[in-house]
Write a structure and sequence with these properties.
The complex is a heterodimer of chains A (695) and B (339). Chain A has 22 helices and 27 strands. Chain A has 695 residues and is α+β, with helices and mostly antiparallel strands. In chain B, 57% of the residues are buried. Chain B is built from five helices and 19 strands. Classes of the chains: A alpha+beta (695), B alpha+beta (339).
Amino acid sequence: MIATAATEPAKAVQGTETMKGPRTLPAPMRKIPMHRLGFLSALLCTVAVLACGSSADPPAVENCLIAAKAEVDYAQQLGCVADFDALAWRPPDTSIPGARSSKTIVDTAQAQGSDPGALYLLNASKYPIHYTFAQKFLSGKGKPLVKDAGSFAAQEYFSPTRRFLLGALTRYDGPKVWAWEIAPYDTMTPEQITTAWDKLVANIPFGKELYFHPTSEALQTLSANLPPRIRVISTDQLFQGSDFQPLNPGVAIGQLRFYKVAELDAKSRWVTPRDIAVLDAVPNDISVVAGLVTAELQTPLSHVNVLSQNRGTPNMGLKGAMQHTKLRGLENRWVRLEITAFDWKISEVTKAEADAWWQSHKPPAVQVPQLDLSVTEPRDCSQVTSADVAAYGGKGANYGQLCHIKGLPVPPAIIVPVYFYHQFSQKMGLPARIQALQADQAFANDPLVREQKLAELQDFVESAPLDPAFEASLTQQIAGHFPNQRVRVRSSTNAEDLDGFTGAGLYTSKTYDPADPSKPLAKAVRQVWASLWNLRAWEERDWRGIDHQAVAMALLIHRGFPAEDANGVALTNNLFDPTQPAFYVNVQFGDTPVVRPPIEVTTDQFLYFYAYPNQPIAWMGHSSLMPAGKPVLSVAQVQELGAALNLLHEAFAPIYAKPGKFYAMDVEFKFNTDPGQGSKLWIKQARPHPGWLGQ
Amino acid sequence: MRSYTRIPLLVLAAMALGLLASCGEEASPAGATAGDTAADAAQADADTAGITDADAQTAADTATSGDQGQISADAPDAAAVKGAACPADQRVGRFEVLQDSVYGGSVAGNVADRIDALQLLVAKESQGSCTLYQRKAAVCTPSCTGQQQCVRDQGCQAFPAPIDVGKVEIAGLVKPVAMTPKGANKDYFFTDFDADPAAPMADLKLTASGGQVAAFALVGKASPPLVVQNTSATLTKGKALSLNWTPAAANAFVVRLSLNVDQHGLTPVTLVCETADTGAFAVPVTLTDALMNYGISGAATATLERLTVDSTLISLPAGGKGCVELLAASRVALQVLAQ
């Protein structure tokens, strides 16, 4: 097979002139580039191969088959890494960064004797999906017909009698690993995987370095049945070998400064909006910065990354960032940091260039809906829709929409309109107090002063009296809706959960327990309203040009969850590869928070391919609070969550899905066990997710 | 009656049946949208394909089961199948005589021993002759293993296995074609046509000699090449998608649009319209908007085809019945940009 291929190089590559000369080297000569050997050596090599006959070793190939800069459709054999580079592209799946891939197809319809079929290594830039290639090159003209895309997918990823064995040959730059992968939902048998593997290994020069990477839990289990010659590498191992993690791709220009999170927590140092901050760990919160680099890898749904996505702040994880020679060499300099889904680069710029860039990249001001003060009654959530942001705030309006989704487990809720906050604010003279703060130069220029003055304002709000009639009426309504129950009082401003501005994590939720005198309703309401004026909310609104005086807070009130089995956040679309629909789930045991976890606490993270047969799961991380190998959610709980996310995604699509724009809902959920009942799923919140900058 | 997903085509077939019955004419066995009476149809098949009486009766049988999986043998109703596509929840096989704008002429097909649950779509909403179909993933607990598929209300079932239906011959093509099953998937195919597989308006007749199932026969009519005025289209929210083509001289065909804009392969939602071969059609804006609301990503695919379709029930090796159809079509791939 090798000798035949060596004498017929033109057949090995389609679409270009191939380089001439034999391609196979005897083992002792592997390290010598073929082009340095010349014709005589080439002849010797050919003779050596013929003399040795077939060898147990895979072919040692050094000379390339694809001419430099040639654009080919496919190859059937690779002679060198440059051949792979000619075919590879950056795949849409960025769940493990730094990957380059060429798609592979083994066509079993072209099997001959012991040869299981023809191998095709696709130019993935031209044919990013297997189907388009197969339809163009492998259909008709004596071959079986390749049917429509739906039939192709149903057959070629799932049927035991499929014609094609589909995969991807991937180079992971971080851990420097060659891997062959199949789709996470593919149901190939171990025998089919072995067939494709052997065919591939025999036709690439780095077959000995190749690993099989199972991309889902099911494939990981199946890999135990593969023959020993197929080396397996897990996603965890690939992650461990990755130093770089793009969290929010983009370009930042700012001053490169190094901080320790402890310094920020102790408020001994402050970041500024023009900092590109390099931190030793992942903070739970951070003020506005130009760019963010953490020396620990993050979780994509962590609070700090949600903030980054909301603000448009480029953000990445980079192991060893605090000691990185290039970064340290640019410390305190003005720099340009570019983060892509696959790599990053940094260069020095002048202060003038930085100023010019900032002038032209000022973030557009967010226009918040003008308050609707005509609505003066708290309503059941079933009477509120996503169109009611002006009256019930963003969280309340989206919650109302959730309540309209038949079959979705949403806790019944009362939503108190912004009207009541506005009345309170006017009576307490808050507009004048805020105006005075805005006129104060010290407040404007010194973050410590801002923090102190805003804390005073919050204290004032928390100690101000509520309107007795409002308090009595609300107490009565809560008692009617949630008799003898503890409830959560949650914020819902007209400047959060908007399309393009989530305002996630800015405000406070509090508990009202009619059975606990230490948790009265008035206190909970005042504390939640006061959170409108906390520092991080002020800074965030300032950054996005939101008029503080135009913001008011409605209240979302629903039952509490005293016995949480698990809590989590999920995206209803695949952030890493929107062409492969999946739910991205972060979930943690009990009530330990997911978005602001304690230091060194990790969560279960996985992609759930709910739309695919057998609903495979691709793990991306595991909870540090669970025993090894035990997930936070049971299979039944994952399925229950999947059904809910599916309902929710479809219901909000007419409102938020836009052509050419990434669409996903960012969903908060809990599993809670009430006395005498089993664990039950509750959907607590849904907001449009901003997506990555590149989406 | 069973529930059909190809309602517009069936409506046309039923209309043709009604017209023929009222006129007292005898149906042409080659007319895909024309139909015979149940007995005539079954007998016609038996006569032409050498099917035994028992088999002819089998062919005249139909099922009431709308469930996925194998079909029960009660409720004879051949007329509803004759001259119409298989109901999606009964189809186990399809043969195609195809003239494709990109890939030329071909004949291909295969038959399985049961319904493929992955191919089942659920009608979400309809307007006029268009329907939005959604793929609904069935969920089994515990999850099925790799060699099984989860079938709604039936749990984990074996994946459909291809079956041998014997020698398949198609009369009426530009060259004689006789096929035997090839490969693990028991594919029947002949893809070596120099040009169109059949002359326009040629009557086609497929006969399967029988292998793991009894012999059967299907008929069709070759469409004149479909000529579409604009093969590129832009899908914009709020705007109806208009299609124009040159109609065939004879009103013997149906024109079908299949369109999806989200993901590739197992796309969750597909818009299908079936209309008379008049030369023009506007896809309702409410449905294109609804299609786009499910999300836009990956590779949009769209085809327009002028076709006839015929189907019959066969007895499956493991019991029960399944439907096999013959699609004769001229197909054009449309370039669709969703924005």
